[in-house]
């Protein structure tokens, strides 16, 4: 199906044209559920539901609107004539007026009262809030599912010792499960922020052209109480508890910034997780899922690249960067209304949601199929064990009267020398022998081996993980119905 070179025909639903740009978020990354939330069908049917709510509320407050008119409007919520709407918009250069016209053709009896007293932002802004809330609930479901998968993973590996890293240099050991608990805690913080955002979402209401409600005051013959009641009625009908106390023609664009800040937070958490997985894959301690027929590299057949983690990192950068758009929009709005927000918001808000949806699907997919290699983890730990043991040796000697500062410097000197022998000469790590042969410590090699054998080096990492899992499990139990264990991620780059 083709048009001219510069004016391609509109493709039927589900049809992909190959001669125009198609957003990869809709073709590769986001779920059908999220794509539907921001679809034209969702947007314009919500406009119509808002027009119905307005008509019903006005009728209840005494305006001459008949049941027949409202019934007619309800019959035509979803049968939207997009061709007519597009053609009309070309003529009037106004999308809301185009859809009022189109709705009026479908509802000739109701046509005179559609959009009565309202301005474009009545349907535009209120719909944005409604769709954002739906999208946040989709994100919440994915977030909870990712946390649940991490909880199972952390529990399984809570007592498996592994090298921890500071500056990506070997540091005091932790456990694989404790590291997963850190990833999980980031997502739990994101969940708290998301729930706070959802609980504070408000509709714009019906405020008229500059937020004063003047058109409705005229409609209700100067009865200010009816103007206030109108908002409450619409709010109830659309499933919200609150409207903004004051507004211009639009709700404050800071609200969009707060919502995208939540998405940015999730992206930050996911990027941290994906970066760690990429590093651990390099160490050969972890592998993300890899199908039997999957190809890691077009040139190097042996490769098992952490492609899914890299995709998370890529999409996360996009979402984090996207957060600047509503921030700039909020800061540059003029007085009671300017239209320089419209084009930006049409792009930045839906795309941030679609990308976050893709990120969390990948997150769930990776954790649910993550491969752990305990023997490699043990080998890497043992290679660095002499260095790890020095902290325990130091504590032992100080408890027996040693000078902590002196011994710390002696250990540092021996560690540097042992490290150089490993790096420059390829020798094995003889740090423990160097300490045993130094009279400052007064220890034999047998003494040192006993100190090491009596130490697990992971402190209370296992107990910390168990304690935190109890907190997380309680949250998951309260949200059991929102968990989604059937996330299917298409594996492509």
Distance between the termini: 28 Å
Number of domains: 3
User: What's the CATH topology label of the largest domain?
Assistant: Fumarase C, Chain A, domain 2
The shape, in one word, is elongated
Largest sheet: 2 strands, antiparallel
> Per CATH, which architecture of the largest domain?
Up-down Bundle
Describe the structure.
The chain is mainly alpha-helical and 493 residues long. Helix content is 62%, strand content 3%. The chain is built from 19 helices and 4 strands. It has helices at residues 24-29, 32-37, 40-60, 67-75, 82-92, 95-106, 120-156, 176-199, 214-219, 224-237, 254-282, 307-322, 324-332, 342-368, 374-399, 404-425, 431-436, 445-453, 461-478; strands spanning 161-166, 169-175, 286-287, 371-372. The strands form 2 sheets. It has a two-stranded antiparallel sheet with strand order 1-2. Strands 3-4 form a two-stranded antiparallel ribbon. Strand 1 (161-166) and strand 2 form a beta hairpin. 38% of the residues are buried. Mean pLDDT is 89; it is low at 1-10 and 295-302.
Question: Concise description?
Answer:
This protein has 493 residues and is mainly alpha-helical. The protein is built from 19 helices and 4 strands.
Jot down its keywords.
disordered N terminus, two-stranded antiparallel ribbon, Fumarase C, Chain B, domain 1, two-stranded antiparallel sheet, mainly alpha, 493 residues, 19 helices, 62% helix, 3 domains, Fumarase C, Chain A, domain 2, 3% strand, Ribonucleotide Reductase Protein R1, domain 1
How is this fold's topology laid out?
Blueprint (H helix, E strand, L loop, with lengths): L23 H6 L2 H6 L2 H21 L6 H9 L6 H11 L2 H12 L13 H37 L4 E6 L2 E7 H24 L14 H6 L4 H14 L16 H29 L3 E2 L19 H16 L1 H9 L9 H27 L2 E2 L1 H26 L4 H22 L5 H6 L8 H9 L7 H18 L15
Antiparallel strand pairs: 1-2, 3-4
Helix pairs in contact: 3-7, 3-10, 5-6, 7-8, 7-14, 7-19, 8-11, 8-19, 11-12, 11-13, 11-14, 12-14, 15-16
């Amino acid at each position: 199906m083709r048009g001219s070179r510069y004016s391609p025909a509109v493709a039927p639903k589900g049809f992909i044209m190959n001669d125009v740009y198609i957003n990869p978020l809709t073709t590769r990354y986001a779920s059908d559920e999220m794509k539907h939330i921001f679809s034209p069908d969702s947007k314009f049917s919500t406009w119509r539901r808002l027009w119905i709510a307005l008509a019903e509320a006005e009728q209840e407050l005494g305006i001459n609107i008949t049941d027949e008119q409202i019934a007619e409007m309800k019959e035509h919520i979803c049968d939207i004539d997009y061709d007519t709407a597009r053609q009309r918009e070309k003529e009037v250069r106004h999308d809301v007026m185009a859809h009022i016209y189109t709705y009026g053709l479908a509802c000739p009896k109701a046509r005179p009262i559609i959009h009565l007293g309202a301005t474009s932002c009545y349907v535009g802004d209120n719909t944005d809030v409604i769709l954002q809330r739906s999208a946040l609930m989709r994100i919440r479901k994915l977030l909870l599912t990712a946390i649940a998968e991490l909880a199972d993973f952390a529990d399984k590996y809570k007592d498996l010792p592994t090298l921890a890293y500071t500056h990506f240099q070997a540091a005091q050991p932790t456990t694989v499960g404790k590291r997963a608990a850190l990833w999980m805690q980031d997502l739990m913080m994101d969940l708290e922020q998301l729930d706070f955002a959802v609980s504070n979402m408000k509709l714009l209401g019906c405020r008229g052209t500059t937020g004063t409600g003047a058109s409705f005051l005229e409609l209700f013959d100067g009865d200010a109480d009816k103007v206030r009641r109108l908002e409450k009625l619409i709010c109830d009908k659309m499933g919200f508890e609150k409207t903004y106390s004051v507004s211009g023609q639009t709700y404050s664009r800071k609200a969009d910034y707060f919502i995208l800040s939540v998405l940015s937070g999730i992206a930050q958490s996911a990027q941290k997780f994906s970066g760690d997985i990429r590093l651990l894959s390099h160490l050969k301690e972890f592998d993300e899922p890899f199908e039997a027929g999957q190809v890691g590299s077009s040139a190097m057949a042996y490769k098992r690249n952490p492609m899914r983690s890299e995709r998370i990192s890529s999409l996360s950068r996009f979402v984090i960067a996207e957060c600047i758009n509503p921030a700039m929009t909020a800061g540059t709005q003029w007085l009671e209304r300017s239209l320089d927000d419209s084009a930006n918001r049409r792009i930045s808000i839906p795309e941030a949601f679609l990308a976050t949806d893709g990120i969390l699907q990948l997150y769930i997919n990776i954790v649910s199929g993550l491969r752990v290699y305990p023997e490699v983890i043990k080998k890497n730990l043992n290679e660095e064990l002499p260095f790890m043991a020095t902290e325990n040796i130091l504590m032992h000697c100080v408890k027996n009267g040693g000078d902590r500062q002196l011994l710390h410097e002696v250990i540092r000197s021996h560690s540097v020398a042992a490290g150089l022998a490993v790096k420059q000469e390829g020798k094995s790590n003889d740090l423990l022998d160097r300490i045993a042969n130094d009279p400052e410590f007064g220890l034999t090699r047998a003494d040192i081996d006993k100190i090491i054998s009596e130490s697990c080096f992971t402190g209370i990492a296992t107990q910390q993980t168990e304690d935190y899992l109890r907190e997380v499990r309680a949250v998951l139990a309260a949200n059991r119905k929102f968990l989604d264990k059937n996330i299917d991620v298409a594996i492509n780059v």
